[in-house]
């Protein structure tokens, strides 16, 4: 069975975005961006893949993305209805009704049911959970792997990594990638029961 991978960036103090969904305060030096393009090019929006010149590279990690409305909204705000055209796209939202793009499926139901169905598919590639915090909290029971890109900055306030009730869930650290810039990528797998 394939895995649900929460691939996400956060500040040192655990925020994935600022109070108004800002992410432009995260520094992205060349060494780090090159690593992201090389290792997780599938997770880049289609326009960023073109800029990074990896748009012709076949997907090697993901073939599907699941995101919440707040993750999808910045693309809509600039007129992009299919921001991850190289992946199957699912947006979990009970309020989004005006997307008329056949490449994007809006899901107004149980996100756990959706990710369980996607994980059960026969595919060698995994499912990319792009966020946000409420969606990650809702599907926490099905997250198999966390790839946390920790930026060397303290936000002070903002959107946490997860929004959920008290639900201690053990993960094992399996890899650490560090960069001279202070960036760290922490790779966790769900702990064996």
Automatic annotation (TrEMBL):
<protein>
    <submittedName>
        <fullName>Dihydrofolate reductase</fullName>
    </submittedName>
</protein>
<dbReference type="InterPro" id="IPR024072">
    <property type="entry name" value="DHFR-like_dom_sf"/>
</dbReference>
<dbReference type="GO" id="GO:0009231">
    <property type="term" value="P:riboflavin biosynthetic process"/>
</dbReference>
<dbReference type="InterPro" id="IPR050765">
    <property type="entry name" value="Riboflavin_Biosynth_HTPR"/>
</dbReference>
<dbReference type="GO" id="GO:0008703">
    <property type="term" value="F:5-amino-6-(5-phosphoribosylamino)uracil reductase activity"/>
</dbReference>
<dbReference type="Pfam" id="PF01872">
    <property type="entry name" value="RibD_C"/>
</dbReference>
<dbReference type="InterPro" id="IPR002734">
    <property type="entry name" value="RibDG_C"/>
</dbReference>
<feature type="domain" description="Bacterial bifunctional deaminase-reductase C-terminal">
    <location>
        <begin position="5"/>
        <end position="184"/>
    </location>
</feature>
